[in-house]
């Protein structure tokens, strides 16, 4: 009987955690589709986050794209020349750089750069208790 009781306790604990996760996800989705109901502080945090994630890394992303593009072109032209298939250089560059490698590298750069910025911001929020921001909404819209 004790084993069944423990199993029931584990199931109820898991059920409570699932309900909590569903509530957080539902709140996040509900708040995100109604930006007109955000307070001024949340709108400012959201605008700053869009600037930090989307606009500021453009120079760095372009520099990485140029360097990776040059290295891929040099490698492909060398190895295709060795194989005697230099006529495939154009289609392979389109397939490798434009469709495959480009989006992956851009996402990786943006995620790494933005993740470290968000971690720093969360650490600063934890230290600075004087900030007057609606906590549930500011947690859903990272600043």
Record keyword descriptors for this entry:
mainly alpha; 2 domains; 0% strand; extended
Structure in words:
This protein has 143 residues and is mainly α. Helix content is 83%, strand content 0%. It contains 5 helices and no strands. The chain has helices spanning 2-32, 40-55, 58-83, 89-127, 135-140. 3% of the residues are buried.
Protein structure class:
mainly alpha
- In percent terms, what proportion of residues is strand? under 5%
**Helicity range:** over 70%
- Domain count, please report it: 2
List SSEs in N-to-C order: HHHHH
Radius of gyration: 24 Å
What is this entry, summarized?
By secondary structure, the chain is mainly α.
Per-chain topology:
Blueprint: H1 2-32, H2 40-55, H3 58-83, H4 89-127, H5 135-140
Helix pairs in contact: 3-4
């Amino acid at each position: 009987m004790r084993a069944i009781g423990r199993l029931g306790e584990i199931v109820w604990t898991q059920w409570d955690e699932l309900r909590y996760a569903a509530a957080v996800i539902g709140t996040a989705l509900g708040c995100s589709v109604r930006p007109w109901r955000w307070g001024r502080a949340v709108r400012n945090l959201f605008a700053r986050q869009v600037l930090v994630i989307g606009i500021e890394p453009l120079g760095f992303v372009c520099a990485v794209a140029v360097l990776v593009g040059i290295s891929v072109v040099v490698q492909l032209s060398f190895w295709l020349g060795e194989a005697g298939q230099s006529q495939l250089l154009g289609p392979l560059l389109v397939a490798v750089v434009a469709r495959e490698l480009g989006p992956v590298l851009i996402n990786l750069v943006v995620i790494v750069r933005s993740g470290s910025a968000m971690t720093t911001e969360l650490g600063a929020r934890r230290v600075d208790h004087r900030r007057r921001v609606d906590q549930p909404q500011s947690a859903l819209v990272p600043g």
